[in-house]
Structure prediction request, 544 residues.
Amino acid sequence: MRSGDGQTAVREFTITVIAPVNGPALSIRTSLLPPALAGSSYSPALATSGGNGSQVTWTMLGGALPPGIALGTGGLLSGVPTAAGTYSFTVRAANSGQSDQKAFTIRVVPDDLSRFNITRVDVATVSSAISPHVQAAIAGWESAIRGDLVHEEIPSGFFSPTFCDGFGDVVNGTWVDDVIIMVNIASIDGRGKILGQAAPCGISDNALTVVGTLTLDADDLQPLVGTQTLTDIIFHEIGHVLGFGTLWSAGATDLVTGEGTSDPRFTGPQALREWQALGGIGSVPLENTGGSGTADAHWREATFRTEIMTGFVSPVGTPNPFGRITIAAMADLGYVVDYDAADSYALPGGAALQAPPADPLGWDVADPNPIVMLMPDGTARLIPR
Amino acid sequence: MSGLRDPRILALASLMVWSCASAPIRTDPAIGCYQFEQGAGARTLGLPWGVELDGEPLGPGWPLMDDLAGVRRARTATGPIARDDHPLGYWRPAAGDSIEIGHPGGGGVALMLSPRGQDLIGTGTANGDAIPLGSAPDPRVARAAPAQVVARRVLCGAS
Prediction:
């Protein structure tokens, strides 16, 4: 150091950098626990993040675990739950000098092997205004699919946390009867455009969905609350979770021909039978507009119009019937179905006959006018191209 | 003066006034008919032959559009003359001089186009809801990349 008058003083200092005493804060990373199946083993593991590297010990702080389930000091919940119900409790994770605590709920669902069951897991807050729509949509599918399918274990660590729309670890360490659907409500793209998206993210040996995700755009829900349209939209998305348009190529037999062309068709024999009963010819027309996620994965809007599994929803106030042909398509996937769950549905006037064109129409089709077919009784029938 | 009292001319004049009053008000230069160039982008998005942007308000039954500004009806052109209600059913002003075109119930595709001369040029994104098994861990990330869209202005009703 030099002073203003030119004098100089020198002294040595030492600075010792030491590690922080506690390191990054210890935080319980697990956000949700999977539902448990009564009578089946349960083994999800709680996890932390951060911490100073010392061993973490888990303890119960309050509440009650389901009968039959215990919390290990390493954070593993394990055992066989014996009674259905909803159980809330709080756990504490602590190491040498740090701790965190969090409340959890475990829902133990009865193991009902007599029917097809959808277990709903809300991975985001589903408001009391939205929840009845979700429940009604689930009930609709549970009435249309009757046969019990699988009783299957998802081992701990089976799904990576990034899988299943980022909620893969929410279902690890439990058993499934028959399907778990994770319901997420998140902002996707503002008002309109994407209302929801749905995907199977795990299938069983029978190539049917065991775990799937349903994401609804939070920005689109409020204007639709209280309408049948919202229930129909959620029902439609659950159809995709269960495999409509998403598992048609996953099984031993590909159920679609002409994917990516202007004339994709569904070829499942049971849907074909219902198509013919509606007056259709050839295989069943699939959507040929709208790009990925719409084309090839829905009934063709120009033919089926209001049917619930077309790619475009009808205006609010217009029914979206659940046709026998959709139930038949689920049967083609391998589900045991009940056609009594179908709504009354007929093809809109003039749209019945859709023979596959000998030469599929190109995208630059110039003549969109319908073909006029003279019927044996002397009447004319318009056949849309 | 005497000619204006001619009942035939008065009838014609009143018909012209009625016609003008009931016709859509052409206040936006984007109003008109467009044919999509059928390139790779249009194929990726499954675009139809074209689109007609008109000045009419969107009809009832589309609550998602209710509080968006400037929403008007679009009609999907399946050919030079034929029209349908999907995949395109509305259009509205968007950022800058661009417009958004899509389906008022959501899904399908959304186009974001800007004027270039008489035409509209921009991108479109698939908004489909069905995500096939294994296509991506996060459907929102799996959204298709925007594809190039060129819409050439054509006379309505002409190819």
Remarks:
- The CA atoms of residues 33 and 156 of chain B lie 5 Å apart.
